[in-house]
Specification:
By secondary structure, this protein is mostly helical. The protein is 57% helix and 5% strand. A five-stranded parallel sheet has the order 2-3-1-4-5, sandwiched between helices. Helix 1 packs antiparallel against helix 13, helix 7 packs across helix 11 and helix 8 packs across helix 13.
C-alpha cells in the first residue's frame, strides 16, 4: 500500500538519519582495542581542528557528533554520568566502534574514568588564550534561541530516535553546563542586566575545569595544548613525525546545527504543501467518508459500464 505523502517523507527522513548514524560510527573494529588518546578539553577549544589533525596522524576519534546523534551512545553515556552505571558497556561500545581517541562532550568530562580504564592512554587538554575568549566562543557558537530553531532541532532529534526530553536541545545544553557552569540557554533567555554575572560565571567555570584537569592528570601523561601552536608540541607528545601539511583549522559547528534544523523544517513544510496539493486535486473524494462514500461507488460503477 502506498504511504500518505507526510508518512512517506517521514520514512525517507528516518532512512536518511539512520544512514547518518551508521556514518557516525567508525568503519571497522580496532583489532588491538583500547583508547590511546583522551581529549579532556572543553567544547570550543579547537576540538574539531584537533580531530582533523589526529585523523592525519592515523587516529580514529569519537566525540560529540556520535553522542548527539546516536540514541544508543547517548543513553549509555547519560546512564553513566547521571546514574553511575558501570563503564563496561561504554568500553565495549568504543572497542566495537574501532575508536582509539576520544574528544568532546561527554568523553572529555569523563577523562578520569577513561584514564583508569586505559592506563597507557595520554591526555590532551585543549585550551583557549583566556577564559574570556572561551566564554565568548562557547556562547556565540550556539544560535540565539528561537521557536523555529528549537523545534526544528527537536524534530530532527525526534526522527533520529530520541524521545521526550532526550530531543530537547535546551536540556542538552544544561546537562553540559553542569561540568563548567556555563549555561548558554540561561544566558540567552535572561534579562540583559543579569548576563554579565552569568558570563563571569562561565569564565570561572572554564578556569576551574582547566585547573582541575592539570591537578589530577599526571604530568607525564598530560599535554596542555592550544591549537594555535600547531603540529610540533602535539607530535612531540605523541612521538610521531611532524606532517608536511599545515595544521588543520576547522570550525563549522553552527553551520551544521542550522543545516539540521532548517532541513527538517523544510521537509515538514514540503510535506504539508504536498498534502494540501493532493487534497485540492482530489477534494471531491473528501466530501463524504472515504472510501465507502456513495459518490465513490457511483464513480466506480460508471467506469465499469
Amino acid at each position: 500500500a502506498r504511504l500518505p505523502p507526510l508518512a512517506a517523507w517521514l520514512r525517507c527522513l528516518g532512512l536518511l538519519i539512520a544512514c547518518g548514524q551508521v556514518a557516525c560510527a567508525a568503519p571497522a573494529a580496532d583489532p588491538t582495542g583500547g583508547i590511546q588518546l583522551i581529549g579532556a578539553g572543553l567544547q570550543r577549544t579547537g576540538l574539531q581542528s584537533l580531530g582533523a589533525a589526529l585523523a592525519r596522524l592515523g587516529f580514529s576519534s569519537t566525540g560529540g557528533l556520535e553522542y548527539q546523534l546516536n540514541p544508543e551512545i547517548f543513553r549509555a553515556w547519560n546512564r553513566f554520568l547521571d546514574e553511575g552505571s558501570t563503564f563496561d558497556g561504554l568500553d565495549h561500545m568504543m572497542r566495537v566502534g574501532g575508536w582509539n581517541a576520544t574528544l568532546d562532550f561527554p568523553f572529555n568530562v569523563a577523562y578520569q574514568s577513561l584514564m583508569d580504564r586505559y592506563p597507557s592512554a595520554k591526555v590532551v587538554l585543549t585550551v583557549r588564550d583566556s577564559p574570556e575568549a572561551w566564554t565568548k566562543s562557547y556562547v556565540n557558537h550556539i544560535p540565539e534561541y528561537s521557536v523555529v530553531r528549537h523545534y526544528g532541532a527537536y524534530a530532527f532529534l525526534f526522527f533520529a530516535g530520541f524521545w521526550g526530553e532526550e530531543a530537547d536541545v535546551s536540556l542538552r545544553l544544561q546537562r553540559a553546563a553542569k561540568f563548567h557552569n556555563c549555561d548558554v540557554f540561561a544566558i540567552q533567555t535572561s534579562p540583559p542586566e543579569q548576563r554579565p554575572a552569568l558570563l563571569e560565571r562561565c569564565n570561572k567555570g572554564y578556569q576551574a575545569y582547566v585547573d582541575e584537569v592539570v591537578r589530577k592528570v599526571p604530568f607525564d601523561r598530560l599535554l596542555v595544548f592550544n591549537v594555535k601552536d600547531g603540529w610540533k608540541p602535539l607530535c612531540d607528545f605523541l612521538g610521531v613525525p611532524v606532517p608536511q601539511q599545515p595544521f588543520p583549522r576547522v570550525d563549522d559547528a553552527m553551520e551544521q546545527y542550522l543545516t539540521w534544523c532548517y532541513a527538517v523544517l523544510g521537509i515538514i513544510a514540503a510535506s504539508c504543501f504536498g498534502m494540501m496539493f493532493l487534497y485540492l486535486r482530489c477534494r471531491r473524494f473528501f466530501k463524504s467518508p472515504w472510501p465507502t462514500s456513495q459518490r465513490w461507488r457511483q464513480d466506480i460503477a460508471r467506469k465499469r459500464r
